[in-house]
Design a protein that fits this description.
mainly alpha; Arp2/3 complex 21 kDa subunit ARPC3; 69% helix
Length: 170
């Protein structure tokens, strides 16, 4: 009985720790890239989006990525629509990535799709970008393919040999 309770407590602690570390890493990466003007606008290259493959390794990445996106959007001064709907796009992408974890090459796809649909709407109607919606969807999709798919798959393939040691309970 005592061993089971201790094991559950350790598992919860590991989950919270992993989520917190992922949130912090996402936030730091977004802020660093944002300092160069690449994390917002019609053409975005958020390298932090590469982390959206982490649900392949642990479900703790879902709240971690979501919290990281929320914090990043608050810190970088986004409008409320971006804070709410940008964070929602990340949450949907993370859930989708976790759902597709059996198909490694598809893991980044939900992040690309959710951001390609949601973020251009925020840019067009929240920030009042005058570019057409198809243009905004194309530019956001391009940035997501580069950051979430290309960089994300490089990250996934680099971490995969060590994934069990890094993300599994000991």
């Amino acid at each position: 009985m005592m061993k089971q309770r201790d094991a559950r407590q350790r598992a919860r602690m590991l989950y919270v720790t992993q989520a917190g570390l992922i949130a912090a890493l996402y936030t730091v990466l977004t802020c660093v890239v944002g300092a160069f003007g690449l994390a917002s606008g019609a053409i975005q290259l958020r390298l932090s989006e590469a982390l959206c493959v982490l649900p392949f390794f642990t479900p703790a990445a879902i709240p971690g990525l979501t919290l990281g996106c929320l914090l990043s959007n608050l810190i970088t001064g986004c409008i409320w629509q971006d804070v709410v709907f940008g964070t929602l796009a990340t949450l949907l992408g993370a859930w989708g990535a976790y759902a597709l974890r059996r198909f490694a090459w598809l893991v980044p796809l939900p992040t690309v799709l959710s951001n390609t649909v949601i973020v251009p709407l925020v840019l067009a109607y929240g920030y009042r970008f005058e570019d057409g919606l198809p243009y905004l969807m194309a530019t956001v999709a391009l940035g997501e393919v580069l950051s979430a798919y290309v960089c994300g798959m490089i990250l996934l393939l680099a971490v995969k040999p060590y994934g069990k040691r890094l993300f599994e309970a000991q």
